[in-house]
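Q&A log
Question type: sequence-to-structure
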Amino acid sequence: MEPTAPTGDQVRQAPKVLLHDHLDGGLRPATVLELAREVGHTLPEGSDTDAATLGRWFAEAADSGSLVRYLETFDHTVGVMQTGPAITRVARECVEDLAADGVVYAEIRYAPEQHVSAGLTLDEVVAAVREGFEQGTAAAEAAGHRIVVRQLLTAMRHQARSMEIAELAVAWRDRGVAGFDIAGAEAGYPPTRHLDAFEYLQRENAHFTIHAGEAFGLPSIWQALQWCGADRLGHGVRIVDDITVHDDGSVELGRLAQYVRDKRIPLEMCPASNIQTGAAASIAEHPIGLLTKLRFRVTVNTDNRLMSGTSMTAEMSSLVEAFDYGLADLRWFTINAMKSAFLPFDERLAIIDGVIKPGYAALGV
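Response status: OK
Response body:
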């Protein structure tokens, strides 16, 4: 640990890597407002007067302690993302916002099946996102920010389109799609319901992550890893249930926790949203502190920047305050994430050695 905590400006300037961020959870409130008026989407009463009011509504509605209630806020972001131009705009602004926050690599996930109600095909949705990412990357570069962005295609675990989305991810994997994911309410919808999709992805040498161990416990994590073969765990906070801290301070890992640590399985931790959904009581009590101390492959992420009113700078700053982390710790989180990215090895290494390490060196680490 450094003797002096990093300043807010230092955290903002530090290179960051983001593996778990939902496209439909990161819209600018002003954009939601404008698009809703364009397409005639009805926003909650009283929230549609101005961007600031709408932004507060999202934060308050998401801050319920319930994952199910948290997910309801997406009705209004997905609702305004049903045309190609709207999706491209949202994707472009996403990249611009992340680049301005110091993110140098990001994997942005979304469920194509949720954006076809106005007639778009799944391929048209992916193409619209790709166009937006390309526009955003060019705009960021013009503003002096280097960023690489890839898509993760998500299937909803309560639906039955996972094989179709898995095939879509494979079809687009050389055109900006890095991998596959399943998301949605965990309880009652185990990942094994989509086993055929995961087996297909494995046969195709494709990468995938699974939302597991957030609202549901160890069985969800165990199934994601041992039945489905996930490369990474989306959230995975409940792995702490398999760790015992004794009164004398000694720590005992159960077999699943030991496996996760030994195999260096990346944990896509999202502190702010975990508190909102009730997966953690506070930042200071978040399992990320213990898991970091035990040197699990911990990464720091935003999940849904709009709903949580957060950013990578805000997430890392909250950890600095709660756990007295220094820049060396933030560098460790960042390299963990880049090592875990669904990007070819040489490209990961180029970002670590050519961007992340020099960026932190310039800050004195």
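Response note: The chain has 17 helices and ten strands.
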